[in-house]
């Protein structure tokens, strides 16, 4: 009797370990980067989901195709101009997410060391306060194809 109970208990523990609803990681999906020219800028967009039990923060990013990479927030200033404000960190609550998209948060890729053409892919590493770095291979796309904010069609303003 006691033996059976122990067996059932062990089985339940196994189940709960395997059936955990959370991934235990921060995951990125739907990532893409804007096309751009050497010495120009680009930007990367994605959705991040925090499947860990800990609140976290995106604190930066790096890439070998640019001289600098920053986290920016685009927003409308009081005089109606779109401006980009560098962010030291952006919170991603446990169980929550963060959307990086045109006209909002984005990974600003500054000073491209090569052309980024549609169909290329770049390596981008995300840095978090708590979670380990995440390195993504990000496809380059035409911003106009993605329903971006480009009202002027110049694609210069992430
Ligand atoms: Cu920017």
Structure description:
This protein is mainly β. It has one domain: PCu(A)C copper chaperone (Immunoglobulin-like, Sandwich), CATH 2.60.40. Helices cover 11% and strands 46% of the residues. Strands 1, 2, 3, 4, 5, 6, 7, 8, 9 and 10 form a 10-stranded mixed sheet that branches. The structure holds copper (II) ion. Copper (II) ion binds next to β8. Residues 43, 72, 84, 106, 108, 158 line the site of copper (II) ion.
Q: In the residues, how many domains can be counted?
A: 1
Poorly predicted runs are 13-21, 146-155
* Bound chemical compounds: copper (II) ion
What share of the residues does DSSP label as strand, in percent? over 45%
Give the helix proportion (percent range).
10-25%
What is the CATH third-level topology name?
Immunoglobulin-like
User: How many β-strand runs?
Assistant: 10
Oligomerization state of this entry? single chain
CATH C-level class = Mainly Beta
The number of helical runs is: 1
**Secondary-structure element order, N to C:** HEEEEEEEEEE
Radius of gyration over alpha carbons?
Answer: 20 Å
Please state the second-level CATH architecture. Sandwich
Spatial shape: globular
Q: The biggest beta sheet, please?
A: 10 strands, mixed
């Amino acid at each position: 009797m006691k033996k059976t109970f122990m067996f059932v208990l062990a089985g339940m523990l196994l189940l709960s370990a395997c059936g955990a609803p959370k991934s235990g990681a921060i995951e990125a999906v739907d990532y893409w980067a804007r096309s751009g020219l050497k010495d120009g800028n680009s930007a990367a967009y994605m959705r991040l989901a925090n499947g860990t039990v800990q609140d976290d923060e995106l604190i930066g990013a790096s890439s070998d195709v640019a001289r600098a990479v920053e986290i920016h927030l685009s927003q409308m200033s009081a005089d109606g101009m779109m401006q980009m404000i560098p962010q030291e960190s952006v919170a991603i609550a446990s169980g929550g997410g963060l959307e990086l998209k045109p006209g909002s948060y984005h990974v600003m890729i500054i000073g491209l060391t090569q052309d980024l053409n549609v169909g290329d892919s770049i390596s981008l590493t995300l840095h978090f306060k708590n979670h380990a770095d995440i390195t993504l291979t990000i496809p380059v796309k035409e911003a106009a194809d993605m329903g971006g904010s480009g009202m002027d069609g110049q694609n210069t303003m992430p």
